[in-house]
Write a structure and sequence with these properties.
single chain; 146 residues; alpha+beta; two-stranded antiparallel ribbon; 6 helices; flat; binds zinc ion
Length: 146
């Protein structure tokens, strides 16, 4: 976890009038990950870090409200990932079979396209989601050969 991320996190919490507690900072640290995580994975880490379940749930709820973390839906389930405030904006390909979430990087034309659509409608875009559900390479071959 970088100092920049921690400082950025503290700034968002306090500037929105919330108290910076040990449990909140600990929960934030659990969310820092190279890959989107399920609640179950986060709870396992929380147990090892001695952060109780109830605080994890309530802090994540607050973090979602403050735009610190967001959900990536995979079918009807979801994983959590830090927002664009912390990691570079990107999109995902999510596998409905194994739950793998693949980052789509360096596809800036997607963003340019979305922006131009918004501008043409006279709309000022602030945020967008662009996610693809389907089957990853491994699962796609498995389902077609069965
Ligand atoms: Zn898969
Ligand atoms: Zn985008």
């Amino acid at each position: 976890v970088s100092t920049d991320d921690i400082n950025n996190f503290k700034q968002i919490i306090t500037s929105n009038g919330y108290r910076l507690t040990m449990a909140r900072e600990a929960t934030f640290r659990l969310l820092v990950s190279s890959e989107p995580q399920s609640i179950r994975e986060i709870l396992v880490k929380a147990k090892n870090a001695n952060v109780d379940r109830v605080s994890v749930y309530s802090n994540i709820e607050l973090f979602e409200k403050l735009g610190i973390v967001h959900r990536i839906y995979v079918g009807w389930k979801y994983k959590l990932e830090l927002s664009d405030e912390f990691i570079e904006h990107h999109h995902h390909l999510s596998c409905l079979e194994c739950g793998k979430v693949i980052d789509i990087e360096d596809e800036k034309h997607i963003d340019k396209f979305i922006e131009s659509v918004a501008l043409r409608a006279g709309f000022v875009p602030r945020r967008h989601l662009f996610e693809v559900d389907g089957y990853c390479k491994d699962c796609a071959t498995r389902t077609t050969t069965e």
